Amino acid sequence: MKVICVGRNYADHISELNNTKPSEPVLFLKPDSAIILKNRPFYIPDFSNDINYEIELIIKISRLGKHIQMKFSHKYYEYIGLGIDFTARDMQTDLKKKGLPWEKSKAFDGSCFVSEWVHKSNFKDLNKIDFNLKLNNNIVQNGNSNLMLWKIDELISYISTFFTLKIGDIIFTGTPSGVGKVSKNDILEGFLENKKMFNLKIK
After folding, report:
1. What is the pTM of this model?
2. Where are the alpha helices (DSSP H) in the chain?
C-alpha cells in the first residue's frame, strides 16, 4: 500500500506559500510507515521546529489500475475520507531552496493521518464536498472539492500514468489555505460535510 499526495491543488494555498501555479499536478509519495496507527496521537519529531497541519480530502483505491481513462476513474474508488499531511515546513523550505527532494519533510514516520471512511454514495456531488479543520476548537482550514485545480477523476487518471494504482492505495488530493503550526497538547478535529471524522491529539 502506498500514499500518493498531490501538492498545489488549491490556488489559495499556492498563494499563501508563495509557490508557482503548476501546469500539471505535483506528486509525491509517503511510505506506509508514515501512517499514524489507529487511536494514536501525532508526535512532534525533534528534528523540526515548525510542523504544519494540512487537511486534505482523501480517497481509497478499490481496483487495480494503470493508464486509467478519466471517464472510467469513478470505478476505481468507493470511499472518501479526510487526511492530514504533516509537514516539517522549516525542513521543506530549506530543501526547496537547495533544489532537493521533499521526502524528509513530508514522508517521515507518523507524518500521515487517515480518518475513518465514508462511502461516496453519501455525497450528492463529489465535486462539491465541504470539509474543514479545527485547531483547539477554532476553524483554521475550509475546503471544497470544487476549488481543486484538478478534480478527483482527473487525478486518478493522471496518477495512473506514472504509478500503478493498487487496492488500498490512498490519494491525498491537496490542501486548501490556512495551513499552520502545531504545538504540544493541540487538538485537531476534522469535519466532512459537517460530520466529525476525527479527533487527533498532538504530543
Report:
1. 0.95
2. 11-16, 89-97, 103-106, 152-162
